[in-house]
């Protein structure tokens, strides 16, 4: 039996369903952005791409954690 997905990645299925793009699309946008701070990236995803706060926060947290 597999462990349930926890943390930011638990939002990924609903993000893909709601916004119609794979997670890789959002991560690529985040990495290509000139912004580097978590809060700035969350605000940018919300205002420029229409994501909800929880979804934007999950994507940014997961993407920034990968680059550390």
Automatic annotation (TrEMBL):
Domain of life: Bacteria
Pfam families to which the protein is assigned, alphabetical: DUF4287 (PF14117)
InterPro entries reported for this sequence: DUF4287 (IPR025629)
Name used for this protein in its record: DUF4287 domain-containing protein
Organism of derivation: Actinoplanes couchii
